[in-house]
Amino acid sequence: MAANHGVDLVKDGRGRLITNVIDNVSWSTEKKLKEKDLWTKWHDECVELHCVQDADRLDAIGAFGVMRCAAYTAITNNPIYAPMGDPKQPYSAIQHFSDKLIHIRDRLKTNYGRSLGLKRHQLILDFLSAIEDEYDTLAPSHAN
């Protein structure tokens, strides 16, 4: 179809850009590259990479992100919530929120992504607060 419209993603270089963005979009890839001092000027300045990274990260937070995390936790047979000290606690959905999801807002790269991230981040914080309130109501001896 691209040939019918005079578009050649290989000749004009966009194919390489697209594959570079795909190869570098994930949080774990970014972390590994930075740890190995392989993060480049391109990574810092590529607007297309930043847009795709923000979209990927925004997808993980907010209302749909909460549902997605709960669904994944359920299909992997891990608990949604486990109190501190429970051996399953490190594998719980709530722990994933603490380990990763609440940090996403601070790692968004575009102005638009950051503006969308504010509301979604607050939803995550409100959700975690509600979980703690409900757990404390069900288990009043639970030590914070």
Automatic annotation (TrEMBL):
Domain of life of the organism encoding this protein: Eukaryota
Protein name as annotated: Uncharacterized protein
